[in-house]
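in:
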């Protein structure tokens, strides 16, 4: 069966909002390490890692073996019973997460983790209003879509009340038309006026990604979170750190917020936590978690197979020093991308941390160039490279390979990207 027949069946039986990359969508059959293979056996260097998910690489043998062993032993239990992998993972997260985060609630996705975090913040503070960031993304539930600060990803119709969107720390396209560092990180300071003018002054939380994922890898200045979180806490709110895309070594530290020197009250994780297995986690300080006293169950949250995969993933990341590799190889990738920017006028900005790097594709007047970005993606695929796309206008190339990537594979990817950008203006 060829790609066209698979596409016909996909369009016939899945919801129309299940979007696909590429003019002729890719049918993936298998994967290993940094490589995926289509139904014809052609190899592609994967620089999007299942949307920044397989940090330990595709089908890592230690993780695969641990999952297979758990399936043979105990496949399902529900949260009504104690299963040892769930307790062990909660204990491990308490050990490795920053600050005083200690108590966990397990779900199946980043959407559920963020939903749980906002609900917990409202319970803990007795307040309802939540601040999110423009260009941010929080998931696909009704609440998560309303937290999302990007029009194409927001729902139509009824909306959840009490959500306010602050300015994003988007230095390349500063909403205040200022320049860093002379701006004094005014976007963070503006949260004070946002609270005073658009809320009751009693906020429950600020929820933010340390580096905005779907927003186009918008990377805040070093001072941003210190200023923003201080303002929110002064008004009685909590800080929810969304590490769904940035967590588990992606940025060169185990968690991206560690670059900013701020300790969260609540943290959410998913994606790389299970290296492809469906798992989400909401971790909170003891006093915040203590507010969650009502009845709650999760049929699949804490599933022993997902918990075993997460434990094995963390072990691989730690023992193979993948966060260190993300820092070293990420710096090498960044240097190669900065050099590309000097060669191609179509690149307006390069930004990111570690192995989470964004390339903003622009026209001559710095206007977003989403059409050009699509062409670059198609050309890169022709040269055996898979990349992601993001940003409000869809004009940011997102590069996030598995953390096992080598400098030689970075060279191969950058050469393919260089050729894909050639002639684009």
């Amino acid at each position: 069966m060829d790609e066209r027949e698979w596409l016909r069946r996909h369009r016939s039986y899945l919801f129309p909002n299940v979007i696909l990359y590429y003019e002729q969508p890719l049918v993936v059959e298998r994967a290993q390490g940094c490589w995926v293979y289509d139904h014809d056996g052609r190899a592609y260097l994967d620089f999007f890692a299942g949307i920044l998910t397989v940090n330990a690489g595709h089908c890592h043998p230690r993780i695969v073996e641990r999952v297979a062993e758990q399936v043979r032993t105990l496949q399902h239990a529900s949260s009504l019973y104690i299963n040892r992998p769930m307790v062990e993972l909660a204990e491990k997260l308490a050990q490795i997460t920053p600050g005083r985060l200690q108590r966990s609630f397990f779900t199946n996705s980043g959407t559920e983790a963020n939903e749980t975090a906002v609900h917990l913040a409202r319970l803990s503070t007795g307040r309802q209003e939540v601040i999110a960031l423009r260009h941010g993304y929080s998931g696909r539930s009704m609440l998560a879509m309303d937290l999302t600060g990007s029009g194409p990803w927001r729902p139509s119709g009824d909306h959840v009340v009490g959500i306010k969107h602050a300015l994003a720390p988007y230095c390349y396209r500063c909403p205040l038309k200022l320049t860093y560092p002379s701006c004094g990180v005014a976007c963070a300071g503006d949260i004070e006026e946002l609270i005073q003018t658009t809320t009751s002054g009693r906020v429950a939380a600020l929820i933010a990604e340390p580096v905005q994922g779907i927003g186009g890898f918008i990377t805040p200045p070093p001072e941003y979170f210190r200023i923003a979180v201080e303002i929110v806490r002064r008004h009685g709110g909590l800080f929810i750190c969304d590490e769904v895309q940035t967590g588990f070594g992606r940025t060169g530290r185990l968690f991206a917020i560690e670059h900013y020197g701020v300790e969260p009250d609540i943290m959410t994780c998913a994606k790389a936590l299970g290296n492809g297995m469906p798992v989400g986690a909401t971790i909170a300080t003891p006093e915040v978690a203590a507010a969650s006293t009502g009845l709650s169950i999760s049929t699949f949250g804490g599933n022993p197979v997902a918990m075993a995969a997460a434990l094995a993933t963390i072990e691989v990341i730690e023992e193979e020093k993948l966060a260190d590799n993300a820092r070293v190889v990420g710096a090498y990738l960044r240097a190669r991308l900065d050099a590309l920017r000097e060669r191609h006028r179509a690149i307006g900005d390069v930004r990111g941390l570690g192995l989470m790097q964004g390339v903003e594709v622009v026209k001559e007047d710095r206007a977003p160039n989403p059409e050009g970005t699509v062409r670059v993606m198609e050309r890169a695929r022709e040269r055996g490279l898979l990349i992601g796309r993001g940003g409000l206008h869809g004009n940011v190339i997102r590069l996030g390979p598995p953390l096992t990537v080598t400098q030689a594979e970075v060279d191969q990817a950058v050469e393919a990207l260089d050729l894909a950008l050639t002639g684009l203006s």
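note: Residues 119 and 322 are 33 Å apart (CA to CA).
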